[in-house]
Design a protein that fits this description.
about 250 residues, Rossmann fold, 7 strands, SAM-dependent_MTases_sf, methyltransferase
Length: about 250
Amino acid sequence: MAPSQAEIDSFHKSAFPNANEMRKYLTQDSGSWDDVWKNNLTLWEAGAVDVQPPLRQCIESGEVAFPKQGRAMVPGCGRGFDTIYLASALGWDYVLGADVSETALAAANDFLKTKGVSPSVAAKVKFQITDFFKMSVPDEEKFDLIYDYTFYVAIPPSMRATWGTKMQELVKPGGHLITLMFPHIQEPYDLGPPYWSSFEDYVHALGGSDGSGGAKGWEIVCDKIPPAETLSDVHKGKDRLVVWKRL
């Protein structure tokens, strides 16, 4: 059964304070996200100064065999928590945090310089004003890992097929895409951003079903509902982490 409008409104109110205020600044121009940052309406952070537990568990458990060296990217990186974490945890020489907001990247660079990040880790991190949908890189610069958390639900659902095509272009064969789906809700609703997401919708965006439950051109190497006790209240029952390997 689809959630009622009252249930949707209640969830958004608790999970995303000031979401309605944020939406007043957003237009079809991706640059309007800078206005969101300038007005301190970064509701998806919800006071966080660390990465989400499912990402940490995925990287540190060794369950997925990530290479010892590579190139990683976090689209819509915001303040850069995840970008810095990946540079530290993976030890790779190049981790790109991309965002369309100049204000966001100023905050990310400030975080990098003032929060005790070691020089060896900081040297691996690059923050860059970049429109994900306009990115084009040569084969030798494609990514071994891209991490998407809240970027997918920040874009209109009508752009999700384009998101999937771009992921296919940017992740090298053998590389990985980590999707931390939140809010993971089976039934779609119109309110957003943040918009709804579901596993089936990611499959559709990434190229359609391969007939065995996955997406064409991708192998699922990890698919988990994180334990509720590891999550904050707004994430309980609303998270799903899937790692896709590019074929």
